[in-house]
Design brief:
single chain, 219 residues, alpha/beta, Nucleotidyltransferase, domain 5
Length: 219
C-alpha cells in the first residue's frame, strides 16, 4: 500500500515513526524527540528532514492593503565563542540572508532565502509577490528605494522609529525563536527547507493540524 511513497522503506519501527511525526508536528526539539523514541539525534534529524521535504505545503500569499518588508540574517558567526575560548576554535561562517514580506491585515508571511548580494533579488521577490496597488512599508535601507518605480513605497529610518515595521519585526522574533528551539541551529545546506517550514507554520498557525491527515495528504 505504501510502496513507492516516501515512507515506503521505513528503517525504524512504525510506533517510533508516529511518535516522531507527532513530535515534529508539535514542534518538539531534536533532543526531546530523541528522548521520547530512544533514537539517535542523527536519526531524528533525518526524519525531521523528511517531514520538512514532504509534508510542508505552500500557502497562497495574496496580500491586501499594505505589507511590511525586511531582511534578516540567520546563523551564527561564532565570534563570541572564539573570544571566550581565547583562540579560534570555531570556524567563522557567513550568515544566511532571508527576505520577508508580511501582510498584517491577513496575518500572512512570505519568506525567501537570498543568495549573493541582497539588493536585486529582494526587490525581484517583492515585485513578484506584491501587487502594485498594495502599499509597501520598509526601513530606511537603500535596498528598497527602487521599489518606488512600481509601488507606493514608504520608508522609515532608524531615527523615525519602526511604527510601520513592527509586524515584520515580530515575525522575525517568532521565526528565530521557533527555529532555534526546535533545531538548535541554522545551516546554509538546509536553509531552504527551514525557511519553507517556518513560512508554512506561520501561515497555518491558527489552523488545526492533524498528523495523520497531513501524512495522508503527503503520500
Amino acid at each position: 500500500m505504501l510502496s513507492g511513497t516516501w515512507i515506503g522503506h521505513l528503517r525504524i519501527p512504525l510506533t517510533s515513526f508516529m511518535i516522531l511525526l507527532w513530535a515534529w508536528m508539535n514542534e518538539y526539539s531534536i533532543n526531546h524527540a530523541g528522548d521520547l523514541t530512544g533514537l539517535s539525534h542523527v536519526t531524528v534529524r533525518r526524519y525531521y528532514g523528511l517531514f520538512r521535504a514532504h509534508m510542508v505545503k505552500s500557502v497562497a500569499f495574496k496580500p491586501q492593503k499594505a505589507v511590511q518588508v525586511d531582511e534578516a540574517y540567520f546563523g551564527s558567526f561564532k565570534r563570541q565563542s572564539n573570544f571566550y575560548h581565547g583562540f579560534k576554535k570555531y570556524k567563522l561562517k557567513p550568515k544566511v540572508c532571508v527576505a520577508g514580506i508580511a501582510c498584517p491585515s491577513l496575518g500572512q508571511l512570505a519568506l525567501r532565502v537570498i543568495d549573493g548580494k541582497p539588493g536585486v533579488p529582494i526587490k525581484e521577490f517583492i515585485r513578484e509577490k506584491v501587487p502594485t496597488d498594495v502599499k509597501v512599508y520598509s526601513d530606511g535601507s537603500p535596498i528598497y528605494t527602487a521599489l518606488r518605480r512600481t509601488h507606493f513605497h514608504v520608508s522609515q529610518t532608524h531615527d523615525r522609529g519602526f511604527e510601520t515595521a513592527a509586524y515584520i519585526e515580530g515575525c522575525w522574533s517568532w521565526a528565530k525563536r521557533k527555529l532555534f528551539r526546535q533545531y538548535h541551529h541554522f545551516t546554509r545546506k538546509y536553509a531552504e527547507e527551514y525557511v519553507r517550514e517556518l513560512e508554512w507554520r506561520f501561515n497555518t498557525r491558527k489552523s488545526e493540524k492533524n498528523a495523520l491527515t497531513c501524512l495522508r495528504n503527503s503520500l
